[in-house]
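Re: beginner question about structure tokens

> Can someone show what the tokenized structure looks like for a real chain? I only ever see the sequence side.

Sure, here's an example I had lying around. Input first:
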Amino acid sequence: DNLTLWDSPGLGDSPKADQRYANEISALLKKKDARGDLLIDAAVVILDAYTREYGTTYQIIDKILFPVLGKDKRIILAINRCDMALGGRYWNYNTGEPEAPLISRWIELAQSVRQRMRLSLGADFDPIVYSATEHYNIAKLLSEMVDGIPEEKRYLLASALRSNPEVWKRGEEVEKHTERVVKKVESSINRALEGAALGAAAGAKIGSLIPVIGTAVGAGVGAALGFFGNLKK
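And the corresponding structure tokens:
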């Protein structure tokens, strides 16, 4: 439904493989759509909290991502497997929450990455520490990802957000981050509707735009707002 995710191969296998993957990533980032805009709106760079071998990734960010996407919100830096940052210790698998020593390790790790990005690459990034397998801080990560998507396209996320409500319920300040996502999606819908109306005034086929925005997307957003609302109860 016009929302495409591109998953690149992991880096660090071998210099030869890394170079091939880097060339493929670079070529994709430079592609443009029919309107002449970059095909890729945003890039999510995922580091591993367990291995902490980031040298190749920093090079990709500096040499490939920055020249095309710049050093702003279009690049999201995330650190996955936060539950394994201390080898699986201090993660409470009964509650799905971290204990104090693990949280301290996350802070150190994020600060280390932030400092390396600032000193070596001249960029200010606040990495999101999360766990895909434990569904922790997913709402926080999503909130940052939405920032990287042009406002007029954010409504495309609406139907996907309701696929598994359980994914969003664990993490830091869940209510704040989910509310941010909802507001961004709502704003996107308003902008899409406004764009459709303006397009109609210019002679566009409003009949082909309003039904899509008003029913399919509208239903998706309604469901999304519903379960986000339940998270606050």
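Each token stands for a local structural state, so reading them left to right follows the chain. DSSP finds seven helices and five strands in the chain.
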